[in-house]
Write a structure and sequence with these properties.
15% helix, alpha+beta, Pseudouridine synthase, 249 residues, globular, 2 domains, 14 strands
């Protein structure tokens, strides 16, 4: 695509590197252009691929969008270019057969080098915009599992931060953000979950990046897509070098 960096494209699949600050699709309220809008401009034939939403009396098209990223999360997002591929990928995500790797910077020092956060999520009782793993959460509680691995530590003005890779096994809204908040290590720059901790390390947005997506196509071909670490995250983690950049950088 001209407007968004393309990681991979063939006749069935379009994989993009979504920038932070761009909504994946509309919410029926915001007039700003979304990733879906930009895709439709260049691929009008994808309009009827996927599952449009009816919001506030309006139809919100989601061309080929099988999964989504939060507005302020950057990184890999895959779109199907035809109905057959959309159905196949949707089933892959539902069956938890898609490998997802995120890079994040969180507040505080995590002493456990790796672990699994296995806590169902529901709406926060105190703020309807948030999701919570606490017992006080209201409504339907949906299973949510996030594994993680510590890559290293950063300091700024006597404050400590941890750089982690997170591997969500499920795909709940705000899952990584809510899970790390639950274990008292909210993501840096998260205005919704980090509260008074605020931003740090020069990050002016959520320090969360979808760096890798892996799945097997119907043909048996194993697909692996990776989005480079964006400049702001690269600067913030520069002291960790190739540990963050990864072997394929």
């Amino acid at each position: 695509m001209k407007s968004i960096p393309t990681i991979y494209e063939d006749e069935r699949l379009l994989v993009l590197d979504k920038p932070a600050g761009l909504m994946v699709h509309g919410d029926g309220k915001t007039a700003a252009a979304t990733l879906a809008d930009l895709v439709l401009r260049e691929y009008p034939g994808m309009k009827d691929v996927g599952e449009p939403l009816r919001i506030g009396g309006k139809t919100v098209y989601r061309p080929g969008i099988v999964h989504r990223l939060d507005k302020d999360t950057s990184g890999v997002i895959a779109l199907a270019k035809d109905a057959e591929t959309f159905s196949f990928l949707k089933k892959k995500f539902q069956a938890r057969e898609v490998g997802k790797t995120y890079l994040a910077i969180v507040h505080g020092r995590m002493e456990e080098k790796e672990g699994v956060i296995d806590r169902p999520l529901a709406r926060s009782a105190g703020d309807f915009r948030k999701y919570s793993a606490h017992a006080t959460a209201r409504g339907e509680r949906r299973a949510a599992v996030t594994a993680y691995r510590v890559l290293g530590y950063l300091t700024e003005n006597d404050r400590e931060f941890t750089v982690v890779e997170a591997y969500p096994k499920t795909g709940r809204t705000h899952q990584i953000r809510a899970h790390f908040h639950f274990i008292h290590h909210p993501v840096v720059g998260d205005a919704l979950y980090a509260g008074k901790l605020g931003s740090a390390l020069g990050m002016e947005r959520l320090a969360l990046h979808a760096r890798r997506l892996e799945f097997t196509m119907r043909s048996g071909e194993k697909m692996r897509f990776e989005a480079p670490v964006p400049e702001d995250l690269a600067r913030a983690t520069a002291g960790l070098g190739r540990l963050v950049e990864g072997p394929s950088a």
